[in-house]
Amino acid sequence: MSLRLRLTLWYSGILALTMLLFGVVLYFFLNYFLYDQIRQDVKREASNSSLRVQKSIALSQKGLVVDLELESRDFYSTNTFLQLYNIALKSFNRSANLQYYDVTLPLTAENINKLQDQSGFFVKTKVLGQDFLIYHQGIRSDDGARLIGVLQAAVPVGSYERTAVTLRYTLIIWAILTIIVAASLGWFLARKALKPIERVIDAANQIDSGDDLEKRIAYEGPQDEIGRLTNTINGMLSRIQKGYDELDEAYRAQRRFVSDASHELRTPLTTIRGNVDLLEKMWKQTSGSTMLATPDQVQISLEAMQDIAGEAQRMSRLVNDLLALARADAGVTMEKQPVEMLPLVQEVVRRAQLLEHRAEWCVGDLTALEDVYVHGNRDYLQQLLFIFIENAFKYTPEGTVTIDARRRDSFIGLRISDTGIGMDREDIPHIFDRFYRADLSRGVTTGTGLGLSIAKWIIDEHDGSVEVTTRKDEGSTFLIWLPANFPLSV
């Protein structure tokens, strides 16, 4: 059952119950007041006639001989009928209109007995096929101790009964028509009100059946519940699209990384396999023979073993980089302690001279590091500096690479600058992304693009930051800021 149908049924059911209660209350209210007016009129007529009867009894010497003709009353022009029953004589005296119709109002012994305890009561009965409302009133002796007669005042109520029936059927028909019209209108309004939800469903189906995450639900109505729901779903679709785009970008980066890593691993493996095949061939030539290897063969063997060792080191560095990123993804927490920066940087400067480079390695002013401590991990801080220095050497085929230090507020800054190939302005926001290489399209250098990603992770773990200044063909400068503890000035 659809929501639209349920809303219509609920609305129609509530309306039907309301109409039923209203009709019942209205019917019984009108019926009560209509008959109450009739009862009051009949009772008043009976009371007036009873007074005249009592006066006649006072003048009578024979118990109850009463003339019911009223002095100024024409009973032919009224609907009220009067009848007096003499209990002692068991005789009836009737008003002129009853005599005209030759009708006697019904009176039972049960009704006479009820008047022994009551002053009067109403009875609805049929006379000559018509509905009559009859008021029975007792006539008592002067001392009130004995019931001597019964006065009956009757009025036909057939027209009122027909009116009540007509009113009842009118209310029923009107309620049915109202419910039908209201249900139709409610169905139309529910359909119109729930139209945006249908658009939500259509949009969701289109997104489910395709890849169009840019589709949004059009809504121009008021900001009611439907409007807020539509806005919420549109916002959710925007977030889903953003997340999907990020996942798609990560997937493309992952595929690029797999391609680069496969290429980087395949090259040293090919070199190692070729050299191993060469050594195996030379071994077969000299094995089982008394002839010693020639100097050329020895030289070739040494070169092959050097190639194998170099490529193994290259593979080891690549695996270490992957392991470092895996640890970063796993949320590995560094073990930190106060690290004195000047000895650490001096050690890095000394070891950096041994790295392969063609640019001139220059050491600037490091006095800002004196007595400065950084709360961090010594090994990772060394790796951080080596990453930037190796990158500077890699991208500076000629010129200089310089390292120096400076202070700012509660931070110590380490600057590594070069005069190498630099980068385009568009590359700067992406250089710390994993697997990204600014020179990928130029093929100037080799590498996987993992070093700066690892460096950025180390900086973040030490609550630091990095500033990048670069210009194509003029060089790059990386300024690393780390929170530090400085010595107290004297």
UniProtKB/TrEMBL annotation:
EC number: 2.7.13.3
Catalysed reactions listed for this entry: ATP + protein L-histidine = ADP + protein N-phospho-L-histidine
Gene Ontology molecular functions: ATP binding; phosphorelay sensor kinase activity
Pfam families associated with the record: HAMP, HATPase_c, HisKA
Stretches assigned to the Histidine kinase domain: 260-486
Root EC class: transferase
Membrane association type: Multi-pass membrane protein
GO cellular component: plasma membrane
TM stretches of this protein: 12-34, 169-190
Localisation: Cell membrane
InterPro entries given in the database record: HAMP_dom, HATPase_C_sf, HATPase_dom, His_kinase_dom, HisK_dim/P_dom, HisK_dim/P_sf, Sig_transdc_His_kin-like_C, TCS_sensor_his_kinase
Domain HAMP: 191-245
Gene3D superfamilies assigned: 1.10.287.130, 6.10.340.10, Histidine kinase-like ATPase, C-terminal domain
Principal cellular location given in the protein's record: membrane
Keyword field: ATP-binding, Cell membrane, Kinase, Membrane, Nucleotide-binding, Phosphoprotein, Transferase, Transmembrane, Transmembrane helix, Two-component regulatory system
Name of the protein in question: histidine kinase
Taxonomic lineage: Bacteria, Bacillati, Bacillota, Bacilli, Bacillales
